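dumping the sequnces here before i forget
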Amino acid sequence: GIQVEQSPPDLILQEGANSTLRCNFSDSVNNLQWFHQNPWGQLINLFYIPSGTKQNGRLSATTVATERYSLLYISSSQTTDSGVYFCAVEYGKLTFGQGTILTVHP
Amino acid sequence: DAGVIQSPRHEVTEMGQEVTLRCKPISGHNSLFWYRQTMMRGLELLIYFNNNVPIDDSGMPEDRFSAKMPNASFSTLKIQPSEPRDSAVYFCASRRQGEGYTFGSGTRLTVV
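..and the predicted 3d for all of it:
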């Protein structure tokens, strides 16, 4: 099956810092999504981004499908950004990476 | 739009008992998915339905697990008999073709 690798596995930031999370995948995909799992366990859909660039407030994402990677940018991080960020790719079914655990300290 | 609704939010049961998890997808979404999340294995797809028809159940761990979708607005995931290793968070998600997935809040199952 398709492999999804996320990096880094853990990230600790001070409030206000910027960060970039990466997702590599092993094969062509039909769909790619970024999710944030908050400390209460909810999975929040951040971006549906099979290709190109999208922005939503302080967050933006870029997927380069031909090179099989996607990046999630978080600018001016806040403590509420803490949680786990998952990349998930779809080829027949949606397969999740292992996630990046982000901790933002005040 | 109330989102994907799952019930119960938490379930504690004794080993050997039957457990039924419920999901109401978003109206107009034609695909429904059941996922399980554990520390060891992360998020795994158990089964998914298109237009109420089961398409891929290869992720269902064993015969103790079964899922149904009797209509477009309701699905159940049943475990009978339950075992401690079934303890996990079970998520339901739905989507409209060509769009992203929306997940419910999950059911945290503890089997003692």
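The radius of gyration of chain B is 13 Å.
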